Amino acid sequence: MTLLRDASLAAAFDRASRHYDTLVALNPGYHAHLRRSVRRLGLPAGGAGLRLLDLGCGTGASTAALRSVLPAAHITAVDASTGMLRRAAAKPWARDVTFVHAPVEHLSDAGVRGPFDAVFAAYLLRNVRDPDAVLATVHDVLRPGGRLAVHEYTLSGRRTDRAVWTLVCRGVVQPLAAVLLADTALLRHLWRSVVDFDTAGRFAGRLRAAGFDRVRALPLPGWQTGITHTFLARRKESR
Question: pTM, whole model, 2 decimals?
Fold first, then answer.
């Protein structure tokens, strides 16, 4: 199958938005893993006085993880899907959470400008047409010394991890999704987008090439070990 990109991908998420939270709930540890990745940013004081950018916020799961761990931060949450963003914005949020409809490639056009103290991007980079261009944008909106956490499906490179991913997608996720969704193109995209994307080691190298330092790739626990990682990096300090 052909990977979904740009408007086609946003439209697929629009169609799936009504049932997306139910699909996410079928993934054990989904929300706990997001919170773990946020904690790995190591930001102080509950985020007091900090500006955070949540890229690809979807229906707000990553936003909720940021809010849970860093309740005092101001969060700007961005997504390209109108349907997903509408679901996110309709949820009850404390103050200092702002939702913006925009593709990540065009943040400035939507009025999203830095500097941010940290950027969190969950399940996003494998879905964009040009990951390097998006990382360049992230680098530009971070303050010097600002932190980045990428929470992403990135296989370790072991054949067993690809086999587990394929088994879960085809044996569990896709059959369950077929009950909820009339259009399962998004779920077929899910499998393909992961196996075609960078391995964890290659993505860490991509971050370094984009000008980030202190790059680390940390696995997540449970069945997703070797499948999902938290990537931590920083924009270099100004000299």
Answer: 0.96
